[in-house]
Amino acid sequence: MKAPVANDVVITGIGLVSSLGEGADANWKALTNFAGPVLERERFAPYTVHPLPEVDWSQQIAKRDQRQMEAWQRIGTYAAGLALEDAGIKDDEALCASMDMIVAAGGGERDTAVDTMILNRIADGVPDREVLINEVLTTELRPTLFLAQLSNLLAGNISIVHKVTGSSRTFMGEEGAGISALQTTIARIRSGQSTHALVGGAYNAEHPDMLLGYELGHHLHRDAWMPVWQRDRCEGGGVITGSGGVFLVLESRARAERRGVPVYALLGNVAADQGPLDATKTHHRLSQMADEADIGSVDVIISAASGSHARTSAERSFLSDNLTDIPFRGISTATGHLRDAQFPLAVAVAALALRHGSTPAPFDPEIERPAERAPTSVGVIALGYNAGEGMVRVSRAEGDGS
Amino acid sequence: MSGFTDQAGRPVIAITGSGVVSSLGNGKKDNWARLTNGESGIHAIKRFPSDHLRTTMAGTVDFMTPVDAGSTALTFALAEAAAVEAIAESGFKIGDFGGPLFLAAPPVELEWWQRLDLDGDGGENGVNEPGYERILHAARNRAHEEFFRSAQFATIGSKLRERLGTRGLPITLSTACASGATAIQLGVEAIRRGETERVIAVATDGSVTAEALVRFSLLSALSTQNEAPEKASKPFSKDRDGFVMAEGAAAFVMESLESARARGATVLGILEGCGECADDFHRTRSKPDGSPAIAAVRAALDDAGVSTDDIDYVNAHGTSTPENDKMEYLSLSAVFGEKMKSVPISSNKSMIGHTLTAAGAIEAVFSLMTIRSGTLPPTINHVTPDPAIELDVVPNTKRDATVNRVLSNSFGFGGQNTCLVIAAEPA
């Protein structure tokens, strides 16, 4: 165990919304008593999604601001508020004004009614499709919808609603966005470029255009629901998505101690990479990253696996070849795949396991093994369903009194 | 402090390669000749019909990819051209660059021709009702790998990574109209942390589509002076009425000065400082007192360890919207005081339009070229100055000047404010 260092990076706040519930505590309870996922099977059949739970948005977002957002931004802004509250920063104007922020984001929701109107009119026959599209978009699009779609406007809304204004950066690129967001935030704090930061993302799975993004590459699971490790013999590509949002407050150990707030966990550096997807090269990269992130001897692995057949099987082989005796948990079994927010989600669950000193019972008892001891270190692994890989070691922050 | 570290003891960041594409041309040579000559790249849109659109002009780049290639293909081609120019200049190997990639790229989504193609496919496969169900049906019945890739946010970064031989997981980012500056800033920070000796920062935008024009028009952000497209972008003029969308890309190769010297590279300039501050006032408007933009300018000067006295020229964000130009003037006046009246400031956007995601990087490249050439590019179309904006905007004609240090501003929707300080190579 290394001695505590002032610039150690610690987690002091978690904001979490998933199909399992609202708030870190509710999610932790649901994970430790996991009896099966919450699913929406009908609305998007043949696709299953993990839907958003009942959320009272007004707890974090004023009505006038809610009206400016669609679901994706609302989920994220809400989760960000929970994280700030959890870290005891929410009402500290000075801390929010000097707080850095990196949000992992894709794009927002399209107006399906307008799109469907265009498709119908074109199917009926028009002299010039492009002219018709111009006409309908000009007359039918809501003026402010664009702002609910722009990638950097989740961060923009967090600035407006929660007054986080030290800096605002938005990273894009599916799971890789979440991996890089944490990697950069941790590196900045450790090097002294930043003292405290908000990092995370959100995803609204309940939209046909979001499903389409995966299905063009045949990534979606289309059979009856199965745990994330057991989808390779089923219809479809293996990914089951979930709605949710995850934000973390990270800060230097020195600042957390000065503020006298409880610390969830200590973060190592994120190892991240990308490259050819063939089994041998992927395995080689994962081995190198595991060394770099120092997760060879952790007590448990929280996996962000998407279920995507080839990638999830590559991860299984890596786990069984390289981390043979370490129990693992595939978080997507419980929550679905949160795309940009998936890596932050897995890190949040790792931090909760350390805070509570326990590893949830297997989500998939056929594949996952019970953990034998209380965790003092957790490895997080993410393989993007299409590209991008990341790992990080999360461990008990000695001397935090928690 | 040695020559290789700055006032804060951090590695000095050398710029050793740069590249640019805009509606004025491909490459620095053509761009600089036409930019300093005051030529406009704005024209009536020919790539797609503009019927029903309130704005029918843009600074599209029509010479890189076929008309039907789509936004993702164009956005990549622009990025590739700028990055290759920058790496070639730096002397590093294209295909084996060996440092991380920071990429500012526009958000992606399926385009209309792709949606129509899918919907038609679904119709032929027996789904009667047009709409998302039919599109999803088509998607699962036949592989659409190209469509899939074009709608993944990581695609352009992945392709660039392969083409250039960058290291690690590429970072793709958006801070709206400040994105290009943020990509550079992320690269600077990585070198300062000692994670790498070199980085490439690329910013690209090939996203002028009918839908994008409609979206910005609905926010009343675009100029509607369609009669004379080349005259529509008129930053700091009284009759300015919005920005003109445009396309382009730019790239910087940056490395520690120590590494640049050790390998005998030509140092083009120094990236001295970056500053940012988010605005919490409104999704599209700035705080009326300009405090976030003021804070970003001050943060950049502080980061560079310089004062307003050291700034010889400002490369303005200067979008030609009523709001931006007024706020930019207000913010600069607050930081520079009375002196701001005599610091030359010009807007490249008067000629190339607003290249959105790419703007911060394109303007950083032009800032560097301003220093190296001793020529201030003009603000064209400056016929009716705004009496409320007392600035030396280098009106209409380029000017010779000795410039050792430039402040380059980038401000964007969503409260994004990022400023860069670029300086000449130390003697």
Automatic annotation (TrEMBL), chain A:
- A GO molecular-function descriptor: 3-oxoacyl-[acyl-carrier-protein] synthase activity
Q: Give residue ranges for domain Ketosynthase family 3 (KS3).
A: 6-396
**UniProt xrefs under InterPro entries:** Beta-ketoacyl_synthase (IPR000794), Ketoacyl_synth_N (IPR014030), PKS_Beta-ketoAc_synthase_dom (IPR020841), Thiolase-like (IPR016039)
Q: Which UniProt keywords apply?
A: Acyltransferase, Transferase
Q: Which organism is it from?
A: Oricola cellulosilytica
Q: Which SUPFAM superfamilies match?
A: Thiolase-like (SSF53901)
- Name of the protein described by the UniProt record: Beta-ketoacyl-ACP synthase
Upper taxonomic lineage:
Bacteria, Pseudomonadati, Pseudomonadota, Alphaproteobacteria, Hyphomicrobiales
One Gene Ontology term of the biological-process aspect is: fatty acid biosynthetic process
Automatic annotation (TrEMBL), chain B:
The pathway to which it is assigned is: Lipid metabolism; fatty acid biosynthesis
- Its name, as the record gives it, is Beta-ketoacyl-ACP synthase
Q: Which SUPFAM superfamilies match?
A: Thiolase-like
| NCBIfam families xrefs | PRK06501.1
- Any one GO cellular component localisation term in the record: cytosol
Which PANTHER family does the UniProt entry name for this protein? 3-OXOACYL-[ACYL-CARRIER-PROTEIN] SYNTHASE, MITOCHONDRIAL, POLYKETIDE SYNTHASE-RELATED
Q: Which family does it belong to?
A: Belongs to the thiolase-like superfamily. Beta-ketoacyl-ACP synthases family.
Sequence ranges assigned to domain Ketosynthase family 3 (KS3) in this UniProt record = 10-424
A single GO BP term for this record reads: fatty acid biosynthetic process
Keyword set, alphabetical order: Transferase
Lineage, top-rank taxon, reads Bacteria
| Gene3D superfamilies given in the database record | 3.40.47.10
GO molecular-function term, one example from the UniProt record: 3-oxoacyl-[acyl-carrier-protein] synthase activity
Where does the record locate the signal sequence feature? Answer: none
